[in-house]
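ok trying this again, last paste got cut off
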Amino acid sequence: MTLDDIEGVLVVGAGSMGSQIAMQAALHGYRVTLNDLTTELLEQAMKGNREQLARRVAKGQMTRAQMDEAVARIRLETDLDRAARDADLYYLLEEGVAAFPFKLADFSGLDIGYNARLETYQVTGDPKDAPPKALEARVTRGQLGRKTGKGFYDWSTTPPTPTTD
């Protein structure tokens, strides 16, 4: 896939960074789905985007029509499965970069990551390739991430909270 093949962009997380990525993608002609846990969070993000775009219009940096077209390209969705249907490119954002690998692992399934690391370790025999103990423990307990409700995050809470076990 090349950039020319991308039509739909999914941004998971409508905080400051996520809302800006969604806005920039829409300004560049992409169809964007912005996903977060509540309608209120999504509406707050779009309110901020509209205000920022209105300032650009007031300064003559873009036209009102360009603003309206960009805003129209952004669809708000609280259901992640529906949000992901038409996406060619995904962004997952929350709590800064540090949370990204763990939340992404929970989204894809901890068993998937565990099995990939285990297979690599079995081929190489290098201890650096072995699955981390924290990952192995969660998989052994059946805590596979979002699909089971618990992994590195507890998905029964809104917003999901990091687990400590």
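PB: full thing came through this time. The beta strands are 8-12, 31-35, 74-77, 89-92, 153-154, 161-162.
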